[in-house]
Design the sequence.
């Protein structure tokens, strides 16, 4: 079951050519999560802001991370803690 979180988080990323962004790990509630797989990515516009969404897994749990390219801010949107 997906659980809505919507909390700011700290994310380590690798920026590649163009708009390529690959999250590597993130901190949430004083715990570090290593990202083992990016299962999906998409982008959307909210007014003037571009939001990049990443569905990622640490091997046990599925998370949705969102990067606001205008505000340069990361949020943990949802968690699927089956």
Sequence:
């Amino acid at each position: 079951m997906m659980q809505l979180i919507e909390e700011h988080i700290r994310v380590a990323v690798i920026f590649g050519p163009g708009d390529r962004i690959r999250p590597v790990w993130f901190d949430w509630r004083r715990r570090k999560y290593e990202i083992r797989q990016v299962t999906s990515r998409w982008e959307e516009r909210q007014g003037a802001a571009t939001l990049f969404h990443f569905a990622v897994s640490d091997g046990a749990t599925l998370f949705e991370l969102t990067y606001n390219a205008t505000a340069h801010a990361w949020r943990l949107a949802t968690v699927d803690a089956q």
Observations:
- The chain has no helices and eight strands.
- The mean pLDDT is 94.
- The beta strands are 2-8, 10-15, 21-28, 31-34, 37-46, 49-57, 62-68, 73-80.
